[in-house]
What we know:
The chain is of the alpha+beta class. Helices cover 51% and strands 16% of the residues. The strands form four sheets. It has a six-stranded antiparallel sheet with strand order 1-11-12-13-9-10. Strands 3-8-7-6-5 form a five-stranded mixed sheet. The chain has a five-stranded mixed sheet with strand order 15-16-14-17-18. The chain is elongated and about 120 Å long.
Amino acid sequence: xxxxxxxxxxxxxxxxxxxxxxxxxxxxxxxxxxxxxxxxxxxxxxxxxxxxxxxxxxxxxxxxxxxxxxxxxxxxxxxxxxxxxxxxxxxxxxxxxxxxxxxxxxxxxxxxxxxxxxxxxxxxxxxxxxxxxxxxxxxxxxxxxxxxxxxxxxxxxxxxxxxxxxxxxxxxxxxxxxxxxxxxxxxxxxxxxxxxxxxxxxxxxxxxxxxxxxxxxxxxxxxxxxxxxxxxxxxxxxxxxxxxxxxxxxxxxxxxxxxxxxxxxxxxxxxxxxxxxxxxxxxxxxxxxxxxxxxxxxxxxxxxxxxxxxxxxxxxxxxxxxxxxxxxxxxxxxxxxxxxxxxxxxxxxxxxxxxxxxxxxxxxxxxxxxxxxxxxxxxxxxxxxxxxxxxxxxxxxxxxxxxxxxxxxxxxxxxxxxxxxxxxxxxxxxxxxxxxxxxxxxxxxxxxxxxxxxxxxxxxxxxxxxxxxxxxxxxxxxxxxxxxxxxxxxxxxxxxxxxxxxxxxxxxxxxxxxxxxxxxxxxxxxxxxxxxxxxxxxxxxxxxxxxxxxxxxxxxxxxxxxxxxxxxxxxxxxxx
Length: 576
């Protein structure tokens, strides 16, 4: 599915989006026309605002003061005897206008008590604003009406909450019982009598209540992508979007319900019905399913992240050269996609303007910055998987690493074409400029760490030179081949004269100095990274480097001395 998503990102098609509705979850409320069927309101009639009879009623109050209009609330039903309104049509008009502005459910008047009639102008305003004006019967008393209406509202809400809890418990029991997402979708589908499916944040199909044609899933993913591109979901609010899609030559109305997984990522519950036209039970079932699915997706995402951390830790140790057995490495690396039969091309990747990249995150917690980095990681992984086969992709500190199996023939142009395309994709769609460093092919798994060092060095060299959006091949192979043309005796003389007493010393202190110098140059002069790699304090690194400068009579801030030391250490690897 991720392959197809790359295509639809590059070639989006216009979807048949029909409407957008706010998807904030709410318990089904009593409607005004339902209340009028209560025994206590038998005989009540609507004299104005009939189009508002479907208004929801969340509360009811009596008018006991002339300034009651200042205290009315949305979806509230106001009942009054009209005592304060007699001979005061202007006050009645102001109350109707204010209630219309506040979105009240309706106004109930005992017109035969203190009011002779309702002025036509008030009826016109109520009709225009859709505020129902209800003529109440003389009996029972207003207090009895309020108590009965309030009881009906509470009974309705209690019933809805009880049903919601029962549905939620049924879905939760499936997950707790180890049944998984499919059983939740299957139960939801049976409850609402409509198919449902679940997409992850990459728009891959996770589960569905029935089998859908693969081509249809591609088209659906394309339409969902179009919808989420147009809708701002950054604030985390859940929205429902209704679309029309074609399947089996029939038009189907579907509802796309975003399910929050974390700060940046959402799954999408696709329900094959118009959620706004569905019954209360169906809407409750969808809402509760969304809640349960959200928790399950969070759990799955956490497991995935933990697996990713373990993968990164293993592969980081691998490219740092901490394994010495090809057989053991192949056995352990098999679970992470490494194959002993492959020749790997190591590519190091890094965004060019990281300070600007995270500027939008601002002073956000590190957890949110990490999520943002993960989003970049996952998008890069999608594109590498699309353009190359069997890629082993991971991250090491701020660098993303791709180990790509090398084909037998004409691989240079093939690799360059894929990297150029990925570079353009990141720039065009994510507005991120990235650069690549490429190491020499590694014919054996134990040679990959050397290829990684070459790729990383090449990447850092380009950045130090102020280059952007580059793809650079390592030149280490050429240097090595050139050095091999020099006699071994001359190489050893150069090696020993450059590294001086550190070469022949067996003291642990001198061995630590050589190791610290090597790691320092591998990390391009970064004290903090060197300390982290050696598991020592940064002051220890500074002290050792000062000792190296004194013993070797070099300046680690001078490019000529650095190049000379790099060459000597390369010769050291060749000799040993």
